[in-house]
Amino acid sequence: MFLNLPIIFTLLSSLISSYFGVNYTHLTKRYSIHGIDISHHQKYIDWDHVVDHSHFKVNFCFMKATEGATFSDSKFDSYWKACREVGISRGAYHFFSIGSNPVSQAQHFIRTVKLEDGDLAPVLDFEKSSQSISTVQIRRNLYRWLTIVEKHYGIKPIIYTNNFIYNKYLKGYFKDYPLWIADYDTSNFYESNTHPNLKLWQYTEKGWVNGISGHVDINAFLGEPDEFKKLKLSYKENPEEAYNIIEDITPSR
Asked: Is 227 a catalytic residue?
């Protein structure tokens, strides 16, 4: 008997989602804008079913594009295209490597990610600490990546991190950049996060969404719909001009 594996996969993921999705009903009711973040670990995605997720509308999706100065996510190109085709607001993130040159990392991300009008601001995923590089130097490296990427795309990047890294490296700094916090203690989130520019909250890494097999990160935008629009590109940057800016910066560790 012939088995249609994509259909079976979709049905199973829908049943799982229906069973587990009620865990965060209070949050899906409290916030009007929700989204997911993904990488090659999600493997096959049925985007038509993601759009039809029943427990909340998937308004946005951030996907891993690059890591360090050389790694590119194997699923980024296909996810990037498919996400736009189904009408979900898309964004790309870079996993920051502390031991790699920040200028090279920024160049790598810019070469890989071509943002268009309506795409979300780029994201710097910073979630690793270091015993060998000083806190001050790490902040400098982060700022260098952020500055280069901001000049290229014409919009401030979003910083993604967790509470430990935020308190160790970011608290009191980078106040002008939108912050995206991963915090799975939903009972204590509001008391422990007072950043003035907190915009996104990753409230679970074990969520379920139609069209995706296995766990997926789920996030809420903490503001009003009009504020969400401010995280999107409204115009295109001149790539040639941006690369000239990068070449003028002397790489440093």
From this structure: no
